[in-house]
Amino acid sequence: MENALLILIITISISTVLNVFLKRYDIPTVIGYVLAGFAISSIFHFAEDSKEMLSHLAEFGIVFLMFTIGLEFSVNHLKKMKKEVFIYGGLQVILSGLFFTALALYVFDLEIKSAIVVGSALALSSTAIVLKILNENNQIHSGYGRTTLGILLFQDLAVIPILLMVSFFTSETESVSVLLLETFVSAIVVFLILFIIGKYILEHFFNWIMSTGSEEIFLVAVLLTVMAASFLAHIFGFTYSLGAFIGGMMIAETKYRYRIESDLIPFRDILLGVFFVTVGMLIDWHSLAYYGHIILGLLVGIILLKGFLIFGILRFFVQKRTALKTALALFQVGEFSLAIFALAYANHLISDELNQIMIITIVLSMIMTPFVLKNIKKIADLMTKEPTVLRERALKVDQYQDHIIVCGYGPVGQKLVKTFRERKLLYIILEHDMKIVDAEIAKGEEAIYFANAAQKMVLSHFNVSDCTAIIVTIENEIQRQLICENIASFDPEINSIVKVNNSAEEEVIESLGIKHIINGRDTIANMLAEEALACHLNLK
Questions:
Q1: Span 278-287, mean pLDDT?
Q2: Can you tell me the distance from the alpha carbon of 534 to that of 525, in angstroms, rounded to the nearest whole number?
Q3: What is the DSSP string of 258-285?
Q4: Who's near 178: CB < 8 A, 6+ residues apart?
Q5: Euclidean distance between CA atoms 482 and 135, whole angstroms
Q6: Is 54 within 8 Å of 235 (Cβ atoms)?
Q7: What is the Cα–Cα distance from 426 to 449, expressed in whole angstroms?
Q8: 3-state secondary structure of 510
Q9: Using the 8-state DSSP alphabet, how is residue 84 labeled?
Q10: Helical residues (DSSP H) of 24-142, grouped into ranges
């Protein structure tokens, strides 16, 4: 116990000092945590006794991360993302896995079972790092962020059959059919239990908790929900993080999602920091020195090959720039790959030498990721340019005054613009889907711009402070909230009109100071009631 406490104190001290220093140079905190882990494992020998304790603690960092991601993606939202998850993600994992398996088998002359393990592990990317950085940069709902998230979700699902495959390679009793049947039955049971709890019990449970008026009890109830969902998945043989993600999706259907997310962020970030410390502790400097040339060659090869594979797969489905940015976000090998190699090594499927080489290669690829994601736009600009016409139009836009800003050019936005055009009002349209912008420019619409209204600098660029009104019509609930937060940060008195879907969202937007809120559900209900009453009166 004393050693465990001492290692925690030393870990926190080193990571705090390192991160304060690194932040001055705008280097992500992830790097400070990894370096702290490497330092304590290299300098302090007693760190070995505490690695397992820290690893268990660190796993909750990924659990809380996946839970908060689940909060942003309800069941309905996930249905809308089925293309990103199952098509893009499925193709990426299968094709990357086959490609790296073939390389391991024919180039590095590994045995078939070892080659399959290596190939499958290298197909995975780092959920913890990539989603953390995307969340920090508010890019989780961007074009490449959505594609990246979809692929990462499928990768997390793929961990389960990969781990089962490793177990099967070393199992002398169970057949593939038995393992697959058990997994399928377990999956159905887990989803049914969590779905029933989420749909019929969870909101009533939190209503009961809120009746106490205690912040402390509410937070304990949230922690209980996260851990219970994770443990339930684990009991049935799945990862803790998958259970947490499903639990988050269930809560996303309730009115408490935003409050729960804000309460959990401190826990998530602290425990993720511990996770990155344990990643740094996996680096053995003896192996790094002895196999350095092999590790460097593998690192460069894996990054380039994986990046090209992802880009090549996505190029058939999305814009070239989106495919490139997604490839840049997912080039690394992830934390679940470490778990796969640990299981394979414990079952003698790979040698100690190969295990150490792969661990260090994976960790180094993860260390590189924050730097790439931080500069992803600059790197993408070097390889492919944004559409010149759109960029020049955005940069050279006139200094508008007394104009109407329409955020989103879906069906509602189009009807609004048609009315403004007929009345010869001055308007501009901000739309983040490049295909829609290209199509409208081709039709002759000069007031549409390729821009993300959820970014504060975009609203500033289009002079939101001097507009007559800004109307938010986009369908994405998270984007709507971000736009409203940005509007309020300029001036709460800006004439802003926002369309929302339900009363819960109306309360959230209203709390930001937005005065004109159109509740789609209530408005339609009122219109239907008026029509029904009119029909009733006519009948009389």
A1: 76
A2: 14
A3: HHHHHHHHHHHHHHHHHHHHHHHHT--H
A4: none
A5: 13
A6: no
A7: 14
A8: helix
A9: I
A10: 29-43, 47-71, 75-80, 82, 89-106, 112-122, 127-136
The answer to whether the beta carbons of residues 487 and 476 sit under 8 Å apart is: no
For the chain, the distance separating the N- and C-terminal CA atoms, rounded to the nearest angstrom, is 83
Return the minimum-mean-pLDDT range out of 129-133, 319-323, 433-437, 521-525. 521-525
Nearest to 81 by CA among 153, 157, 188: 153
Can you list the alpha helix ranges (DSSP code H) found in 238-351?
Answer: 240-251, 257-281, 285-290, 292-314, 320-329, 335-346
pLDDT tens, residue by residue, 489-508: 787 778 888 888 777 777 77
Is there a contact between 29 and 19 (Cβ–Cβ < 8 Å)?
Answer: yes
Instruction: Look up tokens 């159109």; give the residue.
Output: 518
Q: pLDDT tens digit string along 306-344?
A: 999 999 999 888 888 889 999 999 999 987 888 788 778
- Using the 8-state DSSP alphabet, how is residue 85 labeled? I
**Angle at alpha carbon of residue 522, lines to 518 and 523, rounded to 5°:** 60
Question: Residue for token digits 């924050």?
Answer: 370
Q: Tell me, what amino acid is at 217?
A: I
- The two three-digit tokens of residue 81, written as one number: 């993302």
Residue-range domains of the chain with CATH = 2-383 (1.20.1530.20), 388-539 (3.40.50.720)
Question: In 3D, which of 497, 488, 490, 502 has the Cα closest to residue 516?
Answer: 497
Sign for the pseudo-dihedral over CA of 509, 510, 515, 516: positive
The helix/strand count (H/E) of the chain reads as 27, 6
Amino acid identity at 274: V
